[in-house]
Amino acid sequence: MNLSLPGVLFVGFLLGLRHAFEPDHLAAVSTLATRQGRVWGSARLGIVWGLGHTLSIALVAIAVVLLGFHVPERFARIGDSVVAGLLVVLGTTVLARYARGRWHMHGHSHDGSPHLHLHSHAHGQTHEHRHPTWDVRRALGFGIAHGMAGSAAVLVLVVASASTPATQAAYILAFGLGTIGGMLAVACALGLIVRAASLTGARFATVLHVGSAVMSIVVGLLLGLRIVGELVS
To answer: Is there a domain that residue 79 lies in?
Structure first.
């Protein structure tokens, strides 16, 4: 399939947008985004996830397309296994912290702007309103891991649809922008839901966060079972 540059950009963006809505991607970002008190906090996680995803795919693409490296078939399977394990660990950690009473949500405001805050009493009963910073690093790490897991399929499309290094680079860029845009939309939607919850109380936001953690575990286990099935078949 020989596409023009606009065609490569269009196809790359659409495939990247669709790629962002895969279950394992949604599970990872929703678990992190639903603990944010503000829409910008959720949106930032979506952007960072997309950047990490694009970075890892671009690195693999450079190694394969420009340097001629061969990606073994088990490469994507290893990446999927890492993602499955991370999803289970992420969801289990959230549930364990709630079960042990280390986390709860409550509302507070800055300069008259009410929002929710995920708070721990593990080290005392004071309500120090420190907003999570590790979530950005986790989102970046998940984006990189997801990019490594899905890079093989993406590279096949790059080679099939782009005949020159310029169009190959354009495809990677467009695909990356699509994944960033898709995940940004998901994260903003979750942020708006949590924001709405902050106006009425923390119970609904807590249910949303715990539910996202459960979904993360389920998706991780299903992904792991799929990998096991491929190995034994």
So the answer is: yes
